[in-house]
Specification:
single chain, Rossmann fold, 10 helices, alpha/beta, about 350 residues, 2 domains
Length: about 350
Amino acid sequence: MTMTKFASALAVCTALLTSAVAFAQDKLPNVTILATGGTIAGTGATSTTTIGYTAAKVGVERLIEAVPELKKVANVKGEQVFQIASENMTNDHWLKLAKRVNELLAQSDVDGIVITHGTDTIEETAYFLNLTVKSAKPVVIVGAMRPSTAISADGPVNLYNAVTLAGSKDAVGKGVLVSLNDQINAGRDVTKTNTSTADTFRTPELGFLGYMQDNKAHFYRQVIRKHTAETEFDVSKLDSLPQVDIVYGYANNNRVALDAFVKAGAKGIIHAGVGDGSLSNAMKPGLVEARKAGVLIVRSSRVGNGIVARNGEANDDELDFVVSDTLNAQKARILLMLALTKTTDSKAIQKLFYTY
């Protein structure tokens, strides 16, 4: 073969290979990773530092570069929305994040979103987005329990699974998902159950939605409560959220914190009561007074499992209180904040708690 013919053949092969690669990329889903910081972007002093590390140090591009296998499952783009430890998450962060997610999902060239996040408040961000995202496209929140510098860091595989899940057609219409440790949880129901182990995220009693295995999502139950595109909450024009605070129930408690929150301008109070949301003799008068002053009161429970029964441990009809159903206190706070952007009617708000 002459050099001319060889060069010609090589050019044809190169063109075919380029075309094949382009075709393969066209077949892959387009997933945008929005980075917010957290342990998944954390660094420690040594490879064995898993406690006392610094969160939110690694940027989104480095996170993506650390998992080259992502290119096999999606066309990935990264964006640094903010870079914080998740205990510093605020209402303003949530509003900014929700608006950006909705902007991206409205684009035809975005098939799914992955949000990297600190684990401390993943469950809260997940539920907020579950109520405010206006698309059926997958939104997956992911984090890590070990910093990126640790031996056996869980961030890379968690990120890989999250991108795979966000690009999966099986995840469409499932609401906001939380994916860590090869497990898939619903944003409404998931909670952090252990301070440090990799299997910390659980959905007590109700169970996981499914698992990630063999580069694929396997779902075993459905999300029943309304979410995302089905909700009535629109944050596109909101610049702030009403102040809602949580008061915790315990033996020998008092109303000092409650009164301080009301004085500071709280529009709603979540009472995380003992048992089935019980009210102590010391706390009940303060809650009654707050309600008469126009503050919405929601009875929740510190237990973490089960339904808070209406008219069970308190006469909610007479007191004009709302019950949280199965939502824990931190999630009840989120729903009440959003509910108060729509109405101050307690009966309408109770209906929202039974809907979402």
